[in-house]
Structure formats: C-alpha cells, structure tokens
Write the structure tokens for this entry.
Amino acid sequence: MDLKKEYRIKLVSKEFLNSDTCYLGFECPDIANTAVPGQFVNISAGTVFFKRPFGIASTDKENGIFYIGVKVVGKGTSEISQFEPGLMVDCLGPLGNGFDLDGFDTVILTGGGTGVFPINFAYETLTALGKNVIVCEGFRNASQVILNKPSYILTTDCGDCGIKGTVIAGLDTIDISDPAKTLICCVGPIPMMKAVSAWTGEKGIKCLVSMEQRMACGAGICLCCTVKVKDEGPDGFKNVRCCKDGPVFDSTEVVW
Amino acid sequence: MDLKKEYRIKLVSKEFLNSDTCYLGFECPDIANTAVPGQFVNISAGTVFFKRPFGIASTDKENGIFYIGVKVVGKGTSEISQFEPGLMVDCLGPLGNGFDLDGFDTVILTGGGTGVFPINFAYETLTALGKNVIVCEGFRNASQVILNKPSYILTTDCGDCGIKGTVIAGLDTIDISDPAKTLICCVGPIPMMKAVSAWTGEKGIKCLVSMEQRMACGAGICLCCTVKVKDEGPDGFKNVRCCKDGPVFDSTEVVW
Amino acid sequence: MGALSVNVGNVSLKSPIILASGTCNFGRELAEYYDLSILGGISSKGLTIKPRAGNPGVRVAECDSGMLNSVGLQNPGVDYFIENDLDFMKDSGAAVIVNVAGHSYEDYIDMVNKLNEHKDKIDALEINLSCPNVKEGCMTIGSDPAAIKLITSKMRALTDLPLWIKLTPNVTDIKATALAAQEGGADAVVLINTLMGMRINIKTRRPVLTNNTGGYSGPAVKPVAIRMVAECSQVLDIPIIGCGGIADYQDVVEFMIAGASAVEIGTACLIHPALPVKITDDLKKYCEDNELILKDLTCTLQRW
Amino acid sequence: MGALSVNVGNVSLKSPIILASGTCNFGRELAEYYDLSILGGISSKGLTIKPRAGNPGVRVAECDSGMLNSVGLQNPGVDYFIENDLDFMKDSGAAVIVNVAGHSYEDYIDMVNKLNEHKDKIDALEINLSCPNVKEGCMTIGSDPAAIKLITSKMRALTDLPLWIKLTPNVTDIKATALAAQEGGADAVVLINTLMGMRINIKTRRPVLTNNTGGYSGPAVKPVAIRMVAECSQVLDIPIIGCGGIADYQDVVEFMIAGASAVEIGTACLIHPALPVKITDDLKKYCEDNELILKDLTCTLQRW
Ligand SMILES: Cc1cc2nc3c(=O)[nH]c(=O)nc-3n(C[C@H](O)[C@H](O)[C@H](O)COP(=O)(O)OP(=O)(O)OC[C@H]3O[C@@H](n4cnc5c(N)ncnc54)[C@H](O)[C@@H]3O)c2cc1C
Ligand SMILES: Cc1cc2nc3c(=O)[nH]c(=O)nc-3n(C[C@H](O)[C@H](O)[C@H](O)COP(=O)(O)OP(=O)(O)OC[C@H]3O[C@@H](n4cnc5c(N)ncnc54)[C@H](O)[C@@H]3O)c2cc1C
Ligand SMILES: Cc1cc2nc3c(=O)[nH]c(=O)nc-3n(C[C@H](O)[C@H](O)[C@H](O)COP(=O)(O)O)c2cc1C
Ligand SMILES: Cc1cc2nc3c(=O)[nH]c(=O)nc-3n(C[C@H](O)[C@H](O)[C@H](O)COP(=O)(O)O)c2cc1C
Ligand code: FES
Ligand code: FES
C-alpha cells in the first residue's frame, strides 16, 4: 500500500456562493482521484493552530482538482474565506469513511446547511454511474439556498421557496416503492439528522448520517473527536472516532 | 501635541541589495516627514510574536515613503525578506532619539554591517543641508559592500576592495582640522563602535554611537532593552532603555 | 455609570481595564499614544524600597505566542516614585494601583508604611508576592500559603488602602494561596503573574536570557490563567482581578465570565501600545449589542 | 550506531524521538503515513486496568499555540492492549514504551504485574502520575513527592523493566517530584505532561471542554518544559526524557542541551502526522553540519 501523505496544495479557484459561503478548488490529483463521497479533507487555515475539516464537495479528476464549500462561522473559516488563488495550504485527505452506496436501487440524498457539499459530491458520483438519485434539501430561507438543481426537492423553514417545512416535509413527497432497496444519506445539523433518522426508522429504510465533531488530528490518533455509538458492553455505548471510524455512520448505531 | 499612532502601512517597493539583504519602501507620510537620522521603526514581521526594529535608511517626503534595509539573520527577518509589495504591516515609529547633528562643521559618518542604513539617511539629510560630510564604511569583503558611493572611504577586512583593514584604517586617512568642531557618528557591530569610540577619545572628537538591544515594546514601557551607561550613583552605572533613551548615545557615556 | 464600570471591592473603576505592572512603566510613555483617562487603572512598575538596576544583559526572549522577561524589577525606588511619578499617575485620570515588591517581610512593611502616607493619591496597593529571593528560607513567600497569610495580615494592620495580592501561577494549588491571601485580609487577588520559563540559544548553548530563566507572559499563558481564575472564583469571597494573555475584548469577557471583576493587560500592550483604546471601544459595542452591563458578567460561568 | 542513537539508562534508542503517549494511539494509524521503525520509540495511549470510555462531549479546545484536551484516558484496557496492540507495537521496530495510568496504588501495581509478564516485548514502562483522582486523599499522587517515592518503589519491587516516571508540571517544585521518583528507584523521568488549562465559549458562557478543564500542550508550553528539564538536570542522576511543545529539530536540540537524553513529540504530530520523518532527516543533517553525535548534546547547557 502506498503511504499516505500530508500534501502542500494550491488553491486554484474561489467563488462566493452567498455572502458567507465560498467554494474553493484545490489542485491535488491524489485526492481528486481517490476521494469518495462523504470523505473529508483537513486543511490548514491561516494563523489558527489546527487544520479545519471540510467535506469534499466535488472532484475534477481530469484536472486533478477537488472542491470544498466553506461557510464562515469563526476565525479559521473567516481566514479561509480570504484566501486568494495561488496560495499553498497544508492538507490531509481524503480522510474518513465515505457513504457505502452499493446494493441499492435508489439513493435519496438529503440534508441542509453545509451538508449540501458532500451531497453534491454524492449526487455527481451517483449520476455519473447512472444510478437513481433523489435529492431533497432544506434551508432556512431562499437567501440560504446554494448548489441547488432544478431536479432537487427543496424545502425552506419559512416557505419563501420550495415546500414550507423541514426536509421531512420534502421526504414525505417521495414515493418509496421498495424501502429495502432504498438508501438515505443525510448530512446536516444534528436535529435534522435525528429527525431523518427517526423518519427512516419508521419506514424501514437504511439511513447513513455524517457526524461532525471538534477534531485535533483528523487522522484517528488523538481520540478527541468522540461520537457515541451503541455497544453491547456494560455501558451500552462506546466512544468512537468521528474522523476515522466516521464521519459516516449508520443512523441506528448513533446514540443521539 | 499630536498623539502617536500605531500605523498600518503598505509595502510599496522591495529590492535585494545582495543575497541576504533587502531594501524596502513603506508608504507612511507621518514617518517619512518627521523621522530624523538615527531613529528607527518597529515593524510586524509575519508570524513572529514581536515587531522587529530597523533603522530608517532614507525618506522620500514628497511621496510619503520611508525606506529600511533588512539583513536576514533569523526567522523574523527571513519572513520580512519574503514580503511582497502591497502587503500591509503594523508599524510604530519614528522611535528613539536620532543623532544630534547641530553645531559641527564636519560630520564623519562611519560604520558597517546594517549600520550603513542609518548612515545613508544621515548622509542624505546632511548633504541636503549642504553640510560637510565624510563617510567611511567598513565591510568584511567586496561581496558585502552595499549602498556605497564613490565619495565614501571604503575599507574591507580582507582588502579585496578599498583600504585593507577596519574602519579605523579608513578614519586614519581623514585629515581632521578641528576636532572640537567635528562629530563622528558610528553605527555598526559593538567591537567596531568600541574601537571608534577609543579612537575618537584619543583625538578629542565627540562620538555618537547607535546601540542595539533585544526589544519587546520599542516604546520605552517594558525596560527590556537595557543599555548600561555611566552614572554618578553607588553602582557607577545605570540601565537605560535602548529604544527610548537611545538608540543613539554619546560614546563616552556607554559602559562598553 | 457607564456599561463598562466595575467595582473591585470598594474600588470603583470606570472600566475593567487596568494596565499590568511592568508593562506600562508609570504610564508616561503611553500617554503619548492615548488619553489614559479611558482606563480603569494603571498598575505601576514593581517598586522596591531601594532603587534597583535590574538584571544585566538580555532581558527578553521571544516565544511562539508570548515572551519571557527577566527585567528583574528595575525601578527607581519607592521614594523617587512618590516624588516624581505618583502625581503623574494620579493626574492621568485612571485609578492608581501601586505595585509593591520586596525581598523580606520588612521590605513589604516599610513600603506599605511609606505609601500609606500618600493614600489620598493611591487607589490600591498591589502586592507582588512572587519575588524569587526572600529572607525566610528558600521557599518563596508567594508559593507558601502560611507566609502569604502572615504577610498579608501584617500589611493589613498598617493600612486601610485596598490590598490586592498578586499571586504566582507556579504553584500546585492556586486555591490554597488565594485563600491564604483572603484569610490574611486581602481585598482582592490578582491572577496571574508570569509562569517560569526558559529558552536556549542552540548555537551558543546558553539560555537566551542572561538571567537564565524568565517570566512567561502573553496569549500562551491565557488558558492557565483562565483556569486559575475559574478555580479560585469557586472558593473565594473577595474579588479577582484577571491577568494573563489578554489581547482582545473577547479575552476580557472570558476572564470576567470565569470570575474576574476587572482585568489587567500586559504583554499585548507591549506590541500594540494603544490596544486598550480598541478594547474599550469593542467592549462598549459588545455591551450594546448584547444589551448588558459588563460587571454582570463576573462569575457567570456555567460549568458542565 | 548512527549519529542519532541515544541511551536512556539501559535502553538504547536508534533516535531520540519518541511519540508521546495519547498522541499516536498505538501507532497503527501513523504506520499509514510512514515507516515507524525510524522512530526511537512509541509510547502507547495511557492504559488502565479496565477499559475506559473517556470523557463525554467536546474533548478538544484550540489555543493560540497549542491545545487543551480532555480525552480522559479513553483506552481499551491493559488486557485488550496486550492481546491486540502490543505485538503490533513490538513489530513496528521502534522501542515499545507502555504508558500506565491508574486511580490508586493497586491499579498501578496490578498493571505493572500484568505488563511484567510480557517484558520481552516491552522496552520501558512509562508511569503517568498525573491522574486527577486517586484514592489517597485529595492530593494527586503526581504532585506529592512522598506518594511518588512510595509508588515508584512499590513498582520497582515488581519489575526490572525500566520505569520512566512521567511528571506533571502543575507543581510548585518539579525538582522535588523528580527527586522523589529517583529515590523511589525510577530509571528516568519524563518531563512534562500537560499544564492544566481552561477555555470558555463567551457566547454560551460554558467551558469549551465538557470536562470544564483540560491538559494544555503544544508549542505554548515549551518554555515551561525547557525550564523544568533544565532545573531537574541540575539535581538528578537519572536521565530525563524531554517533552512539551516540540515542533522541529531545533526544539529537540534545545531539550537535549537543557538536559534531555531523549524526547517525546505529541501535539505537533497531531497537526503534521509525518513530522518525525522530517525531524529525523533534519537532525541527521544537523549532526553532519556540526560534526557531532546527538547524544553528546545532553546536558551541555552553559548557564550564565
Ligand atoms: C467531517 C466534517 C466535515 C465538515 N464539512 C464542512 C463543510 O463541507 N463545509 C463547512 O463549511 N463546514 C464543514 N464542517 C465544519 C467546519 O469544520 C467548521 O465550521 C470549522 O472547523 C469552523 O472553524 P472556525 O475556525 O471558523 O470556527 P471556530 O468556532 O473559531 O473554531 C474553533 C474550533 O472548533 C472547531 N469547530 C467549530 N465548529 C465546528 C464544527 N461544526 N465541526 C467540527 N469542528 C468545529 C474548529 O475546527 C476549531 O478547532 C465540517 C466538519 C466536520 C467535522
Ligand atoms: C535600534 C535598532 C536598529 C536596527 N536597525 C537595523 C537595520 O537597519 N537593518 C537590519 O537589518 N537590522 C537592524 N537591526 C537589527 C534587527 O532588528 C535584527 O536583526 C532583527 O530583529 C532580527 O530578527 P530575526 O527574527 O531575524 O532574528 P532572531 O534571532 O530569530 O530574533 C529573535 C529575537 O531577537 C531579536 N534580535 C535578534 N537580533 C537582534 C539585534 N541585532 N538587535 C536587536 N534585536 C535582535 C529579535 O528582534 C527577536 O526578538 C536593528 C536593531 C535595533 C535594536
Ligand atoms: C516586561 C514585563 C515586566 C513585568 N514586571 C512586573 C512587575 O514589575 N510587577 C508585577 O507584579 N508583574 C510584572 N509583570 C507581570 C505582568 O504584570 C503580568 O502579570 C503578566 O505579564 C501576565 O499578563 P500578560 O500575559 O497580559 O502580560 C511583568 C511582565 C512583563 C512582560
Ligand atoms: C490528545 C492528547 C492525549 C494525551 N494522552 C496522554 C496519555 O494518555 N498519557 C500521558 O501520559 N500523556 C498524555 N498526553 C500528554 C502528552 O503525552 C504530552 O506529555 C503533552 O502533550 C506535552 O507534549 P506536546 O506539547 O508535544 O504535546 C496527551 C496529550 C494530548 C494532546
Ligand atoms: S481528531 Fe484525532 S482521532 Fe479524530
Ligand atoms: S523595548 Fe520596551 S523599553 Fe525598550
């Protein structure tokens, strides 16, 4: 097996999707060629101490470029949003386990917030393989809608575009013929993933979720990025690593 | 009195004088207009914690630009040497006391190493005033010679250009008609300033030297940048601040 | 009373921001940069009975997010201070905090007696109990709770000026030393002075500081300082003045939530002399945006 | 023997670089990045008698030049380790350092007994004496010299595996705790474990860490670590393993000059997993450029 590397890679493109979210392209053939949807990269962010994790949003294998979407929420993401093309950054990736998409007739991708980035990558990958994909995304309001496609089911909390309500309202509009052959992948805020997990539970649909946790290494060595999952043992749960054992988990495993 | 400011100023020009020394121009009308030779600026240097002090090497009042020369010796100066024009840096200045050049018929400027930068500023200032100036600079060898002018007396340790020897050999060639009306300003490594100080002592010439010390604030508040000067008190010396009480001192005051 | 005004015991400050001892001299040089009357207070350079030349040689070493200093209490002595600097501080409009250092119990007592004669010009005495060489045994006063209690009570008997005891973080149990100060009659504790550190020049194989070791300050020490303030706020009845690594208004807020009634800013002002102006403005805006007055933040930490 | 080989007492290491406990798990994940046999050693994640789930919630807080962690000794327990991880570590080609943590004297003794049965696979036991909750009183073992001496001598009686005692920096006098380890029969001391710190989220007014406080590590702690290594090297006869904030080869050299025979690297490897490869290369070049062998650096500090 080839050894993994820490890459020093070039930012090749940057555009703003809305006032606080930007979309960045980095040149790194290794990552562009090997990443699968649900995996993430850990990227050095200006002057802050740790790298920052971001889900891979798209890959352009031909040009060896991968994309991430970054929403500004604090110091690190603010510095990243000010990066200019040409800048070199340190990067680890692709990290973590992606979505296991095999063996299903239909894959429903759902989520919101920065979850739309890994969903975008999953959508591109599945459609390229000619799979049956349905996307249902939820946002707070119209001004928050990013990376949307006409074929997507769209929901907004306030109803100023798409269906009024959460993604559950959107999912309810989908006619699921064979739950056993359907997979739902959900990436979004915890309450959303919890709700979708409950919804799929009722319907008997397998559901994968992508968890977020504060990370130090992103490489599975420090045990800082705990996710609680169910366990046979005396405690009834065990702590696993978001970065290495996840970020994708079966929703029924997670202790919400 | 106007309040002093911490400026955020733009790097407008950069050129390399030799492999490890560069010459930088910063836009800051306040500093360009008020600085006198011997004063310095304290400039933020990339990722290091403290600002770094540099003697002002020249001013262009018309365009509001001042210049410094930076020799790469460690982390901070190495980062500064990689600055690109357009960059904004934090800057305090002009700081410290300059050379008091009044009341002399002839001013001899002497020194070496990065001392040539303040000497350059003093030379420009004095010639603009039509004063009688003699410059004598010493370097290790020809490859180290920077900012030299044909009218300067030049010495090199190895003799591969100019007079072989230290600046003392150069100073010895000067015909000093009236020691009482002659001032020597010396900026260079401690052994050089000590030697020049001894030489001027013998001749009865007033000698000003510019001291260097590790600084934290550069503004006279932390007492970190000690220079030992003679004192009447029981210790026979007292510690004064290089940044605020200096960097220019009468060579007879300094406890070498 | 503005949104920024706070009390440290009986001492009212118009802002929680105090310039930390040793990082502002007596304020004169900083008055060239801004109007000192915006400050809550100024803590003087550490004073001793006799003038001190301080340590020779290199006194500062740069670190990744901070610095080591070994100034060694260079100061003109308390008499000179009273004659030449105290009035300037008083006239600045900021509360006058006089930082007192000593080498023995007698030193502290003599200093307090002298300063007490000028109590109309002084808002508080800040007693620096982290001096490395004291007569009593090899243990420094500042790390021995019994010694802290004793010396505090001796000073307490001499003055009714507010006594703020400034403690060293180089101890196993900061609660014990803080409680000792309280038991001795202190009006407040100041947390923290510098951590002891060393840097070595690998070329010369010598310590960078001619004094070998020095006091570590700056943003790097903040997590330790916050922890100590939060620990002590659980056990003390007297107020805490927080100090260590403050560099922006968020840091001030963090210290106050942890338990501080006021704060001192040191190292960050060495790098940006006019920083308190910005922090003051930012704090005002923070209070407006959050519709609160600053002193209500003190001790609002919600532990998990 | 290459220019990088060092000895820690009887233990020969091909390089002074050891991965610090808790920052490399058992080495498996890092083996995906580089050949672990270049290392001097690997110190296992801190082990306890029973498996531990560690602390819930947020376990890491970022600081300016470092981090706070409150992992809380999550580990699979010593039995699982012996069955599943020890052989992997042994086969890695790096010296196997097993980090032992406990909640009581008995815990430590049971662990040492168990590990002693596998001594052919272990190069040294690193005893982590900074566990915050032990049966004996409220004082932690790691800050009480008498307790350190006692527990070290109890373990000493049970094994002739090298015993490295890892000490906490949260003490008034590190020389006293280090000497106690030596008197108890330790083969070496490891300096330092993490400083105790806290960070607060000013929006929620809660500590960032769900455990409230955490251990501070990274470049920010280096000046404190260097000072402690230098202090102890003046009084100890046994070797010191230096640790705390190492991020480049110069830092390794600085620790060795201060008194370390070997070093451990923790936090920096979390950010750059393959950093030890670069540091190893840089150290080789440093030795060549300066025509020296690394172990000759140990304790070469020239005090002023
Ligand atoms: C697997 C994974 C994938 C992610 N994918 C994306 C993405 O595609 N696009 C996107 O915009 N964001 C994504 N995030 C969240 C992103 O990492 C955080 O928003 C970012 O780290 C915040 O950094 P900051 O310095 O701006 O915030 P600060 O709050 O200043 O950061 C302080 C610390 O908290 C951590 N932190 C803060 N928020 C989060 C969070 N939500 N998750 C994990 N750590 C956090 C930071 O990494 C840092 O260590 C992802 C997070 C994870 C774990
Ligand atoms: C008044 C004054 C005027 C100066 N003028 C010039 C000039 O015109 N051109 C020029 O190239 N250099 C000048 N210097 C020296 C310059 O400040 C140092 O070379 C620079 O600070 C080194 O920084 P570094 O990070 O590269 O070195 P490092 O050695 O990595 O720095 C470590 C620390 O030591 C300090 N330091 C290192 N060398 C010196 C030194 N010689 N003097 C003071 N502090 C030092 C640094 O500021 C920093 O705090 C002047 C110094 C002073 C005090
Ligand atoms: C250069 C310098 C000199 C100092 N001198 C004193 C002093 O004389 N008396 C004192 O009590 N503290 C002194 N201190 C400690 C500071 O007042 C403060 O407690 C410490 O630096 C931590 O705060 P900071 O991180 O904001 O600097 C000094 C600190 C520095 C950096
Ligand atoms: C995430 C994390 C987990 C740690 N776990 C342990 C541990 O289990 N046992 C131990 O002795 N030290 C542990 N430490 C302390 C480190 O081994 C080391 O002593 C400390 O981090 C200082 O070194 P550094 O600055 O290079 O990280 C841990 C440190 C970190 C950052
Ligand atoms: S962040 Fe280190 S194990 Fe996940
Ligand atoms: S550097 Fe602070 S007084 Fe000179």
